[in-house]
Write a structure and sequence with these properties.
4 helices
Length: 102
Amino acid sequence: MNTARWSAVAAAALAVALLSGCSDVEKALNQGGDTKCSDYLTQNADTQRVTITKFIKQQTGNDHEPPGTQVDLSMAAVQSLCQVQANKDTPVKNANLLGILH
């Protein structure tokens, strides 16, 4: 394989590796329950799901993936909380999730 072709293959492999790793990096850096409403509302649906999943894990002290319905209900509660907050710096952990997390 010539050098130019090898470089192109290596660059493509590196790009794929970096793109597939972004999800893990995003999950590690995501603040979960400490995410501000202003930040949560600007996240796309996938990132919001990561935020709420991490938040549930923080609240329950359980590192297992929560059921999808629990995440969906929590996302709805946080979305409602954040849309009515006068203070957009309110963290999503202040959503009233009583009964949803336990």
